[in-house]
Amino acid sequence: MALLINRAKKWAYIHIPKTGGTTISSLLLKIPNTEIVNSHGSLNELKEVDGYFIFSFVRNPFTRLASWFEHYKKNNNYSESFLSFIEQINPLDFVFYSQEYFLRHGETKEKKVSFIGKYENFENDLKLVFKIIGEDLEKIPKLNTNKYIEKHPNLDTNKLYKGYFKNDYIKDWTIKKYKNDFIIFGYDMEI
Fold first, then answer.
1. Does residue 156 fall inside a structural domain?
2. What's the chain's Rg over C-alpha atoms?
3. Structural domain boundaries enclosing 89
4. In the chain, what is the greatest distance between 2 CA atoms, to the nearest angstrom?
5. Does residue 189 belong to any structural domain of this protein?
6. Which CATH number is 72's domain given?
7. pLDDT at position 153
8. What is the mean pLDDT of the chain?
9. What's the angle, vertex CA 102, arms to CA 186 and CA 168, rounded to 5?
10. Does the structure show a pLDDT above 60 at 149?
11. E strands along the chain, which residues?
């Protein structure tokens, strides 16, 4: 996971947490001259990138938050409810910032994101990115995935994650916190 830049090929990648970025970063770091700028960061952290192809990936805010919950449970032996998890979120923890923040903080006329792929169209959008940056992409690994989902490859993850939002408070909280992400990136506020 990283905010990456390749000055030789004039591209940069903004890794938004829980949008497939571990996979993307692993592929990009194999390209010569690719450097890590930061572990995560916004557009603001990229310097001297006028004319660069800057790209990122976004994800439906509902499934992104549910994926964070699953990730947190797995890595912290957490057994509390989804509601408890949401109530404990620190608003200053950057991993829970809006996706809009990562892509617009520091935006200028000369420095802006050129392409925003969608997690929901991951393979096709990633192939397009690699075509634009002039690199071959043969196989896309699946890294940092939910182990339960790996054991059940036919599981409909959207259906699984939708179950977390049956509580109106949780659904409304998510819509309020990530309202701009829903609007800007074209995600439906109904789950």
1. yes
2. 17
3. 3-184
4. 49
5. no
6. 3.40.50
7. 59
8. 90
9. 50
10. no
11. 3-6, 11-14, 34-38, 53-58, 115-118
Provide the token pair at 184. Answer: 């800007």
Domain membership of residue 140 (yes or no) is yes
Residue 156: CB atoms within 10 A of its CB come to 10
Q: Which of 23-27, 142-146, 175-179 has the lowest mean pLDDT?
A: 142-146
Which two tokens mark 72? Answer: 């947190």
- Tokens 């994101």 belong to residue: 113
**Which pTM was predicted?**
0.90
- Sign for the CA dihedral angle at 54, 103, 23, 40 comes to positive
In a domain, 160, yes or no: yes
- C-alpha span between 142 and 162 (Å, rounded): 22
168: pLDDT strictly greater than 60: yes
- Token pair in block for residue 144: 């940092």
CA geometry: angle at 14 spanning 43 and 97, to 5°?
A: 75
Counting the structural domains of the chain, the total is 1
Tokens representing 51 are: 């004319």
Tell me, what amino acid is at 137?
L
CA 22 to chain centre: 9
